[in-house]
């Protein structure tokens, strides 16, 4: 397994920085659009804003590809994440689990969120920083 290439730092709040990719929508051949939260990310809603974090437990079940993630279980849809890139900031809900730890990315974004932050879908990766905005969240 590759060493983790993303960073976590505390400065009053936990800030995570690393590379983000996009997932789902009509352009992802490896994704059927089903998310762990039940929100469909299959391209029918091109404005869908959301993200996925590597959660070792999703809906009460172990996610083998995310075991070892530093993130605790977090509820889908109600947990908001503040993501910043290219001088732009968005606040979006967690709607899915991933990316797998072997991908070495701390977050995946829906296509709309990726583009809202100035990401280029063809390049596929975007340097970001983010913060989980749930009360009582600590690591």
Main pleated-sheet profile: 6 strands, mixed, barrel
Oligomeric state as shown: single chain
Strand residue content: 35-45%
The chain-level structural class is: mainly beta
Summarize the structure.
The chain contains 1 helix and 9 strands, in the order ββββββββαβ. The chain has 139 residues and is mainly β. It has a domain at 48-128: Beta Barrel (Barwin-like endoglucanases), CATH 2.40.40.
Topology of this protein?
Blueprint: E1 7-10, E2 14-23, E3 51-53, E4 57-58, E5 61-62, E6 80-85, E7 88-97, E8 107-110, H1 111-116, E9 125-132
Parallel strand pairs: 2-8, 3-7
Antiparallel strand pairs: 1-2, 2-9, 3-8, 4-5, 6-7, 6-9
Can you give a write-up of this model?
4% of the residues lie in helices and 35% in strands. With 139 residues, it is mainly β. It has a domain at 48-128: Barwin-like endoglucanases (Beta Barrel). The strands form two sheets. It has a six-stranded mixed barrel. Strands 4-5 form a two-stranded antiparallel sheet. The protein is globular and about 30 Å long. The chain starts with 6 loop residues before the first strand and ends in a 7-residue tail after the last strand.
């Amino acid at each position: 397994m590759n060493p983790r290439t993303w960073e976590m730092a505390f400065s009053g709040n936990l800030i995570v920085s690393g590379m983000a990719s996009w997932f789902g929508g009509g352009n992802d051949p490896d994704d059927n659009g089903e998310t762990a939260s039940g929100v469909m990310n299959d391209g029918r809603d091109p404005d869908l804003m959301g993200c996925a974090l590597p959660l070792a437990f999703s809906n009460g079940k172990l996610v083998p590809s995310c075991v070892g993630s530093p993130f605790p279980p977090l509820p889908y849809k109600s947990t908001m994440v503040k993501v910043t890139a290219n001088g732009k900031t968005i606040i979006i809900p967690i709607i899915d689990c991933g990316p797998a730890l072997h991908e070495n990315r701390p977050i995946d974004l829906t296509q709309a969120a990726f583009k809202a932050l100035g990401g280029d879908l063809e390049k596929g990766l975007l340097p970001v920083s983010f913060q989980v905005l749930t009360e009582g969240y600590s690591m």
